[in-house]
Amino acid sequence: MRYFEDLTPSTGAREPRAWLRSSRPRICLNGRWSFKLWDSAPDGVPEIGPDWGELEVPGHWVLQGHDRPRYTNTAFPFPIDPPYAPDANPTGDHVRSFDLPGDWPADGAVLRFEGVDSCFKVWVNGVEAGTAKGSRLPSEFTVGHLLRPGRNTLAVRVHQWSSGSYLEDQDMWWLPGIFRDVTLLARPLIDDVFVHASYDHLTGAGTLRVDTAPDAVVRVPELGIVAEPGVPVTIGAVEPWSAELPRLYDATVEVPGETVGLRIGFRTVRMVDGLFTANGQPLFFRGVNRHEHDERRGRAMTVDAMREDLVLMKQHNVNAVRTAHYPPHPAFLDLCDELGLWVIDECDIETHGFIYTDWRGNPADDPEWAPMMLDRMRRMVERDKNHPSVVIWSLANESHRGRNFGELAAWTRQRDPERALFYERDRTYEFSDFYSLMYPPLEDLEAIGTRTEDVPEETAEHPSLEARRRALPFVLAEYGHAMGNGPGGLADYQRILERYPRLQGGFLWEWIDHGLLLPGATDHVYGGDFGEQLHGMNFCIDGLLFPDRSPSPGLTEYKKVIEPVRFTGPDPLVVHNHRTFTGLDDLEFLWSVAEDGVEVDAGRLDLPHIAPGESTELRLALPAPAQAEQVLTVRAVLAKDEAWAAAGHEVAWAQFVLEQPAAVPVVAAAVEDRGEVLRVGGGEFDRSTGRLTRLFGRAVDGPVLDLWRAPTDNDNGQGGRNGVTQEWRAAGLDRLLHRVDAVDVVDNELIVRARVAPEGLGVGVRTTYRWTADEHRLQLTVDVQPDGEWGGTAVTPRCGSWPRVGVRMTLPKALENVQWYGGGPGEAYADSREAARVGRYTCTVDELQTPYVVPQENGSRIDVRWAELTDAGGNGLRVDGAPYFQLTARRWTTEDLERARHRSDLTPRDHIYLNLDLAQNGLGSASCGPAATPQHQLEVAPYTFSLNFEQI
After folding, report:
1. How confident is the model at residue 663, as a pLDDT?
2. What is the DSSP letter of 85?
3. Cα distances (angstroms) measured from residue 841 to each of 9, 510, 821, 864
4. Helices (H), 149-201
5. Helix and strand counts by DSSP (H, E) for the chain
6. Which of these, 273, 274, 253, lies nearest to 263 by C-alpha position?
7. Are 175 and 298 within 8 A, CB to CB?
8. C-beta neighbour count of 368 within 10 angstroms
């Protein structure tokens, strides 16, 4: 059997060990390498020929002009026949020459690869050094005996497919290559270090034991420690490490000729009374799942990009990360230690593609695969064992059940009993310290919180396993699928998660869109963009960040939902500290009062010390009522610079409407009859159709009733199975026709009656438009009445909701400047509105758009009191709503948006298309999870709303 197909994890590799910062000499071998791509695995030692090119390492050859990337969600992009790889197995030969100084200590030197996808063989100066599998894990080879002074040649043959590929089906791009660092290390004199640093929350004492070379000396200067290896040292008082206050102590381990630098965090995690605790307190995860992804470099991440990720997480109140679905670059965990995030470190194992065989052949339950799987677990644990941020080891992701997980769990508990274990997909949870699910409906989550959930069939016949499972704390492995516009319903999830102690938080899916930007391209690509038959479409475009690392509206919403400080009130104003370990003394509290969006007063709040989990009440001197809407805003901001944000960065906020003015009624003026034209105030109407044709002298079209929106990924659901788009299309909402039944003038009011209905069906909507005007304003009142069999018939399904209820109209393209008073600054929908704060905002029509990789409904501003659309001279129109309305304006139609597959498919037209909605249906997260909940659905029902138009 060929080595890349056998079940041997590696040959010639050293034992796994910790990732250490050592003073020993090293040579970085990153840079330009000679490269040759073969269609299938060649034989012999790689030799550079005239048809070779160059490649950047770290990197992926498919992102540097060789072959193409592939994306699948669950399916293997090759036949399922473990452990065999297909004959068509793209193989990249990499060759790099380097000079070794004559005085460089080559004896016992180690060649280290941080990550190679998926299997590779190494030669040094033409002699084989070894082979390895396990793409997201380090491999080391002793090569000193193969080196020589002066010029040396390193050759690496990388196979895209191997037996290891059956363990790496992790819902991501298949990106082969040497994608992490390559380093030549002088022989380690300190081969390994294992730091044990615990904290006693009752006494404040810390205990340190460092297992390492027996002749080493351990020093922690700040604590005055000079210790022997393996000997526990107790310090009477230390500052513990937590994600809220990531206190680190610099330390060294020294032997003659080598010093290893460490950063030690004292903390203790354990299970107490069915809860996962750190330093004596139950943890609550406000987390994200994070794949490694860069729009141009794939998984060849830079340290700057890693830091950018973590800074953004901290700035958006995220306190935990699950390294989905493999160990990250080791520098990422250093940054987690430094900046403060709890980490679930996940092993490089996922066998999801075996769902297509009903799990026949699944490696997780085949003892022959146990060495391969255990090798991956050992390499992760040994590499990352010294990070205080890592509090949980995850055995794998979505690999069903299997006896091999028992071996992984047993070894890990013996090697590192100081951390918890996690695995979600085995519903017995016999190897996990947590009960966990992905994407449960809210009612199921509520039942889990009260421990009244249904018994899984896997434990129904095993009372002891069921009793253990029911006693476990619960963590959501994945929820809130952030694909396209969404996710919706995060506030509903959070309310339940915070209500029950058993529920210890969760990890949103996922951190970043996996869109790739290929050289010379303007659009990000996703599955299917290369003509491949088997692919996962845009299921990889499901992040809280866009591919360029700019935050999406979903991340802004998540930040608001998981705020660690809450305000209720306003009289009294109550400040709640939702932190676990620290008070709020690092924050400054500010207040302001605005009238109709204009600030009229502001100040600072003086708060007493508020301990974790506690609250305090304040009495504010609220302003006297005014002839304007008064809104109180309270904010918590950083009082000083932190490593992840500057002073003044906003951590939390709340608003309270204090006073709302009464609406001013329109005193109707007479309707002017001008033959073919009816004039109502500033509006001119076609007499036969009742359609508005000119508004304040400008040509317009509409407004007419609009019930349709360009479906979002969450509207479409997962594979069309659980979305609402199918229901809406079956009801004909995407092909509505408008028929005018009557145009009448009655008592200074223009009344247009119409029926809006699809062809081929009996359902429809009786719509009445009532137009009145006074000296300055033109008022439209729209009355909507469902008509026909919306509940379904013997041959047509029920339609229980509408995408939107509002009107659509076309305006001149010059009216491109938008100002509004209402929710903002970003988009918001019925179940994604927590981050929308009331204020005055200004932007252009183009800036209203949200740049989703796959175009879909976007850009709605919610709770709009009024909006103005003007040209460059400040002339245009103003719209007021009764009640508030949702505002959407764009340079293309809804139909254009629906047809587009990439952003470049959207070509601006010569008009602006304006939607003024009473409401839209919620978003939900049905792209992988539940649809919008009933309270956020726009049910099929009668509706009435009014709009006032005014010239400016």
Report:
1. 77
2. P
3. 58, 30, 7, 11
4. none
5. 11, 60
6. 253
7. yes
8. 11
Region for residue 531 given its phi and psi (left: phi exceeds 0; alpha: psi -120 to 50; beta: otherwise): left
In sequence order, the 6+-apart residues with CB closer than 8 A to the CB of 614 are 576, 577
Structure tokens at 866: 């009024």
Catalytic residue among 168, 398, 453, 595: 398
Rounded to whole angstroms, what are the CA distances from 195 to 200, 265, 410, 418?
A: 16, 9, 21, 11
Q: What is the pLDDT of residues 127-149, one digit of tens each?
A: 999 999 999 999 999 999 999 99
The encoded tokens of residue 838 equal: 């009331």
Per-residue pLDDT tens over the stretch 456-501: 999 999 999 999 999 999 999 999 999 999 999 999 999 999 999 9
* CA dist list (Å): 861 to 182, 827, 835, 921: 49, 5, 11, 14
Quickly tell me which residue has 């006297």 as its tokens.
624
Q: Give CA 404 to chain center in angstroms.
A: 31
**SS3 at position 380:** helix
Query: How far is residue 879's CA from residue 864's CA, in Å, rounded to a whole number?
Result: 9
Residue labelled with tokens 């209500």? 499
Helices 330-339 and 370-384, packing angle to 10 deg: 40
Asked about 816 being catalytic, the answer comes back as no
Q: Is 751 left (phi over 0), alpha (psi -120 to 50) or beta?
A: beta
Query: How many Cα atoms occupy the beta-carbon half-sphere of 619 within 13 Å?
Result: 0
Strand order in the sheet with 503-508: 420-422, 390-394, 342-346, 320-322, 285-289, 503-508, 474-479, 435-438
Residue 413 exposure: Cα atoms within 13 Å on the Cβ side: 12
Longest dimension (CA), the chain: 104
Active site residue 398: yes
Nearest Cα residue to 316 out of 284, 341, 338: 341
Tell me what pLDDT residue 660 has. 85
Rounded CA-CA distance 182/178 in Å is 8
Contacts of 410 (CB under 8 A, 6+ apart): none
Q: Pull the structure tokens for residue 271.
A: 């299970």
* Positions of the chain with pLDDT lower than 50, given as ranges: none
What is the C-alpha separation between 327 and 710, in angstroms, rounded? 38
Calpha distance 524→407 (Å, rounded): 42
Sign of CA pseudo-dihedral 733, 736, 739, 745: positive
**What kind and span of H or E run contains 767?**
strand 764-773
Q: Which two tokens stand for residue 845?
A: 């029509």
Concatenating the DSSP letter of every residue in 610-632 gives --TT-EEEE---PPPP-SS-EEE
What stretch of H or E contains 503? strand 503-508
Please tell me the total number of residues recorded for the chain in this structure. 952
Catalytic entry in 453, 478, 595, 857: 478
Report helix, strand and coil shares of the chain as percent, to nearest 5. Answer: 15, 40, 50
pLDDT value of residue 450: 97
